[in-house]
Design brief:
8-stranded mixed β-sheet, alpha/beta, 6-stranded mixed β-sheet
Length: 278
């Protein structure tokens, strides 16, 4: 992409207030939706034009299979209607965490992130590509048991800039973030406390630095009714790798002003993206 094209696209906004929503979701879908709706309203009231919900915001079940009962066909369903209504009511771009969408594989759903425009229309769908697997003797996670892997990345042009979407474990695969250049990456997540303490911040800042972009990462953050503990620390990071705002634990909103001039200046004074050889 030439500098002239990038400058034209980024000039559509001078500053962007963006929000990372943090939750401590439960097995109760209605309770989770009420919390998400309240937090999205708070973000909008604080001036956010873009908000990102966390992974599994609608349900963190007692068993991995619990989410399958709530899987919807793409294009219609209670969860998708809720998200479209929320984006429309608040007049925001909404990167809608993840919800289960039906797959053709028995016993498995896609872990999908939908992007909604301020008019409530769906602007894009991303099915999580990389499925988390972890076992250390006391904890075991295997998303592949109940989740079908996605097949393609999602990077879309919006009035807010070029937006990429990744989900949680995707963060460990830098090649995904280099497939196409983006100005903003949104990353809904539910990092475990164990892996989060070790790697969450450093990987997020690395993705922002090496791709010279803003990163908006929304996590689950606390001890859930099921006993599972997630790391939280939802944050917004600038293209120089500086943390603009962070919410360590519990429900809430991390919010920051993203400046197009900062992105442009970073890429101008250190044009690393233009210096790539491979």
């Amino acid at each position: 992409m030439t500098p002239d094209i990038r400058e034209e696209r980024m000039s559509q906004f001078q500053t962007l207030n963006a929000a990372a929503i943090q939750m401590v979701s439960t097995p109760d879908v209605a309770q989770n939706l009420a919390s998400a709706r309240r937090l999205l309203a708070e973000a909008a009231q604080r001036g956010a034009r873009l908000a990102v919900l966390p992974e599994y915001f609608a349900i963190m079940g007692a068993r991995d299979t619990d989410k399958l009962a709530h899987a919807e066909h793409f294009g219609d369903g209670p969860l998708q209607n809720f998200l479209a209504d929320a984006a429309r009511a608040e007049g925001i771009w909404l990167v809608a965490g993840t919800i289960p969408l039906a797959s053709e594989i028995p016993g498995k759903a896609f872990n999908s992130c939908l992007v909604f425009q301020p008019d409530g229309q769906c602007a894009g769908r991303y099915d999580k590509l990389h499925l988390f697997g972890f076992e250390n003797g006391s904890e075991r996670y295997c998303e592949a048991d109940t989740i079908a892997p996605g097949a393609a990345p999602l990077i879309i042009d919006t009035p807010l800039g070029r937006l990429g979407v990744a989900i949680c474990y995707d963060l460990r695969f830098p090649e995904l973030f280099r497939l196409q250049e983006a100005d903003l990456w949104a990353l809904p997540a539910a990092f475990t406390a164990t892996t989060g303490r070790a790697h969450w911040e450093i990987l997020l800042r690395a993705r922002a630095i090496e791709n010279q972009c803003f990163v908006i990462a929304s996590g689950q953050g606390g001890v859930h009714p099921t006993g599972r503990e997630t790391f939280g620390h939802s944050m917004l990071i600038d293209p120089w790798g500086q943390i603009l705002d962070v919410l360590p634990h519990g429900e809430g909103v991390a919010l920051a002003e993203l400046k197009a001039s900062q992105l442009e200046r970073t890429r101008r004074v250190l044009p690393a993206l233009a210096h790539r050889r491979l």
